[in-house]
């Protein structure tokens, strides 16, 4: 797919990337190469192919979803630089 320099300029502007005017033709050519590759991928037949989480088959580790004791407020706040009334205290940043 052919991308012109005007389209490359617009994409760079939308991406908030400052591209020198001299580099726009090269950028347009790179965009075209990327789009050509995407078109090649669209030609691949993926019917019946299961999605994968890894290239090697493996089961994810699972644990029982149970409520734990928690109740560790003192341990959590033990190293806090400033804790008040059972919470982390932070400097006020909004007036």
UniProtKB/TrEMBL annotation:
Signal sequence, renumbered to the chain: none
Entry keyword Transcription: no
Single annotated GO MF: glutaminyl-tRNA synthase (glutamine-hydrolyzing) activity
InterPro entries on file: Asp/Glu-ADT_sf_sub_c (IPR036113), GatC (IPR003837)
Function comment: Allows the formation of correctly charged Asn-tRNA(Asn) or Gln-tRNA(Gln) through the transamidation of misacylated Asp-tRNA(Asn) or Glu-tRNA(Gln) in organisms which lack either or both of asparaginyl-tRNA or glutaminyl-tRNA synthetases. The reaction takes place in the presence of glutamine and ATP through an activated phospho-Asp-tRNA(Asn) or phospho-Glu-tRNA(Gln).
Subunit structure of this chain's protein: Heterotrimer of A, B and C subunits.
Protein name: Aspartyl/glutamyl-tRNA(Asn/Gln) amidotransferase subunit C
């Amino acid at each position: 797919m052919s991308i012109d320099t005007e389209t490359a300029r617009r994409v760079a502007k939308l991406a908030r990337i400052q591209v020198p005017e001299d580099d726009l033709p090269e950028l347009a050519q790179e965009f075209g190469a990327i789009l050509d590759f995407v078109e090649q991928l669209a030609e691949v037949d993926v019917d019946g192919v299961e999605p994968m989480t890894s290239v090697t088959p493996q089961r994810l580790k699972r644990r029982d979803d149970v409520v734990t004791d928690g109740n560790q407020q003192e341990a959590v706040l033990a190293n806090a630089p400033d804790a008040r009334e059972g919470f982390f205290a932070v400097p006020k940043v909004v007036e």
